[in-house]
Amino acid sequence: MLAKFLAHPLTRGLDIDAPETTRLRRRIINSKPFLRRIYEEWYAMILEETGEQNTSGPTLELGSGAGFFSAVSPGLISSDLFAINGISLVMDAQHFPFKDGSLNALAMINVLHHIPDPERLFAEAARCTKKDGKFILIEPWLTTWSRFVYKRLHHEPVNETSADWNIQGEGPLTGANTALPWIIFQRDRALFESKFKMWRIAETTPFMPFRYLLSGGISLRSLMFSSSFVFWRGVENLLKPWKTKLGMFAKIVLVRQEIT
DSSP E strands: which ranges in 179-230? Predict the structure, then answer.
């Protein structure tokens, strides 16, 4: 009931699988300064890994959707399952229309936990990424705190006991498991490393325990004034020693390596 009360008036009652909803969510991000600054921070984290200029090949963003990464990263290939204004390429993240080794890097924000068959995604990403290229993901992550939040205030299911990685659902966004990134890279890390030797897990860092929640995200009303953003960033910096218990997201970095 709390989630319904806090629901953003523009998204209440919408079909989240409709392209029009994704277009509306872009409008919401741009209208919420606190949330927009979070996205800017996420893009900066990705660019820190990939470099500002894509001189050794393009960077592909999967599931660009409502975001604006292409506005801050020259040469980025933005892609989505929906045909949306500003998207460079309409594609399925399980089928890449690229030549082997043609991409410098890949990036995804809040997308992995919607992919029906993640194994096909990681295989295709490995095929198309050059040696030492990176795959940077920013995804929901399970901690003591985030479990409490995601299971009470988030509309997507959280099934951390799922026996496999596949997502069941009727649509590209209604099909989801918020626990999936944690399952793959924490619970089943050894299995991932066995299945995908071409990917080295370089980093899984939990972060951001409060700010996304306080922003209301895309679906909820803002809970804080935009002027408080720096204050809350400072609070989170002070809480970094407890990030494994408090983080709601994780920065995941995979590095493409040769199989010996």
Answer: 199-207
